[in-house]
């Protein structure tokens, strides 16, 4: 693990209070869409002399592809990414998620729900990302019904925040989503809860990620406020689509990024992020040494989607069997919770926030 007083990676000296992260799901090899998010978060952290962390979002083990997590790490290393601290794994943090849910339950901010997805689809009206939960179980389970999920009591009112790329965002979660699930019917904690706890545990101050998660951000802000956590700033880069307009991660055209010849993919991602063209004669290390001081998040297009060059992945090939020497330091992962009251939140002001008196949650390991 590097000392904060030492020169940072790629010649950027020192470290600031900036803490960013990249959090892929190990459902397959790294594709070009994920590379775009990784590059933006990495360049923004390093340009601000910050810490950049890696987290594997492997909470839902049924979706995990065996070996994908290690392949993603090897690919990132081969592409020149250097991360700080140990890699965090959601599958090892279930106690922390349970503690957070217990805190919300103790504060009266959740309730058990006996509705199936089919019942919600029949009873709920259409919302931003599917049916809006109609509040069937909000006042209590009907006689003879057993709990399937645990839902958050979404308060009324608008969440307004300034996204570092997409500009001002406003959403009424109660109207657009309704009371959302925190623990699924299979017992797995929902992404919205897990990511909020993860960002608090790692002390993340700025989240740079894909625009497919832009609509989720107000839900995460509500949970941060309810738990008394620090709130990071947000910046959402355009989602990468294939030639047919499908999200690249769900497209058959989403071939893995070629770790054996990384510069074509890096240059293509850099261009889609709106940055000035890199000199033609740069090798891998020189590319990053040049790119980080040149990074400007203000140049990233303020659109939610872009089409991938060639419809899939520049110079994509099948996953390589080569073993790459890891670049990152592998110090012990710190699970120290970074929490704060409302007056210590990071990021732009949040208007009309509920739960102004919520104190920080305690998520001690059980």
Describe the protein in words.
By secondary structure, the protein is α/β, with parallel strands linked by helices. It has a single domain (19-307), classed as 3-Layer(aba) Sandwich (Rossmann fold), CATH 3.40.50.620. The protein has nine helices and 14 strands. The protein has helices at 32-47, 68-78, 94-106, 117-123, 173-176, 191-201, 217-227, 263-272, 284-294, and strands at residues 19-22, 51-56, 88-89, 110-113, 126-127, 130-131, 149-152, 159-163, 167-171, 181-183, 206-210, 233-237, 239-241, 305-307. A three-stranded parallel beta sheet has the order 1-2-3, covered by helices on one side. It is elongated. The two termini are 27 Å apart.
Short précis:
The protein is an alpha/beta fold and 366 residues long.
CATH fold title = Rossmann fold
Rg result: 21 Å
Q: Based on helices, strands and strand pairing, what is the structural class?
A: alpha/beta
The appropriate CATH architecture is 3-Layer(aba) Sandwich
β content, as a range? Answer: 5-15%
> What's the SSE pattern?
EHEHEHEHEEEEEHEHEHEEHHE
Q: What's the CATH H-level superfamily name?
A: HUPs
Keywords: Aminoacyl-tRNA synthetase, ATP-binding, Ligase, Metal-binding, Nucleotide-binding, Protein biosynthesis, Zinc
Domain Glutamyl/glutaminyl-tRNA synthetase class Ib catalytic: 19-250
Biased composition (Polar residues): 322-337
Protein name: Glutamyl-Q tRNA(Asp) synthetase
